[in-house]
Amino acid sequence: MMTNGLLYVVATPIGNLGDITLRALEVLKSVDAIAAEDTRHTSGLLSHFGISKKLIAVHEHNEHQSAEKLLMQLNAGENIALVTDAGTPGISDPGAVVVDFVRKAGIKVVPIPGVSAVITALSASGIAQNGFLFHGFLPASGAARRKALDALKAQAVTLVFYEAPHRIVESIVDMTNVLGAERRITIARELTKTFETIHRCNLADAEAWLQADSNQQRGEFVLLVEAAAIKDADEISEDTLRILKLLLADLPLKQAVKLATEITAEKKNVLYELALKLKTDQ
C-alpha cells in the first residue's frame, strides 16, 4: 500500500541567509519538490546552499488551484516543502490555504520553525506588556485602515503590524490620529539586513522621524504599538467595581469577568485586568 507523502512548512530567512536552520536545509535537500511563493527568489536561496530541486509556484493568486495539484503529489507519496519568499509560510504570506487543504485531506503537515519577522521585532523591542496581537497588514485605503485601527485601539496588548514602504507614512499618520499621539511605537525595518533599523518613539514624533530621512521609508516594516492604557480602579464606577467584587467572591475569575462585562457593558479587557489586580491585592 502506497504511503502518503508529508508536507513540510519551512521557515526561511527574512534577510540574512545565515539565519536558516540546519533542519530546514536537511528538509529542503531531502524532499521531492518545493512549493514556493516566487520560484525565482527561492532558486536564489537554494543555489546559495547548493540545492537543486523541482519548484512549484504557489502564490496568493493560484493558491487554491495549486493546493489541489500538491495534494495529488502528496497522495502519490511525494514529500513537499512549502516556503515563501521570507519568513514563515501562512503568517501574512501564502501557505495557510495549502496547509488547510491538505490537512483536511488527512495529509500530515510538519512545521519546520525558524525566522518570523513578528518575533524578531518583538525580541529586540524591549516591550514587556501582556502579550501581543498580530494584525498583519492594515487595509490599503485610508478609510478602511482607520476603521481597522479604531477597532483595535482599546486592546490592552501590544499591537503588531506589517507595512509596505509606500504606505508607511500615511499609516503612521492614521495610527497617531486614531490610537493617540502619546502611545509609544517601535519601528523595525529591514530586519536582519544591512540597513536594519529599530527605532522607538512616541507616535507623535514618528512621522517627523520618517520624513527627516527618506531612507527610513524604504524596506519592509514591522510596527509595534504599545497597549492601550488600562483603567485603574478609581476610574471604574463604584457600581461596576462592587459588581465585579461580588462575582469574584463566588465565581472563577474568567466567569466573573464575563458576567460583569454583560451586566455593566464595560470593556472586557478592562475588567479582566482589574480582576487580576483585585485577586493579587487579596
UniProtKB/TrEMBL annotation:
Biological process terms in GO annotation: methylation; rRNA processing
Residues in RsmI HTH domain copies: 234-279
Keyword set, alphabetical order: Cytoplasm, Methyltransferase, rRNA processing, S-adenosyl-L-methionine, Transferase
Domain Tetrapyrrole methylase: 7-206
Single GO MF annotation: methyltransferase activity
Protein name: Ribosomal RNA small subunit methyltransferase I
Signal peptide region: none
EC number: 2.1.1.198
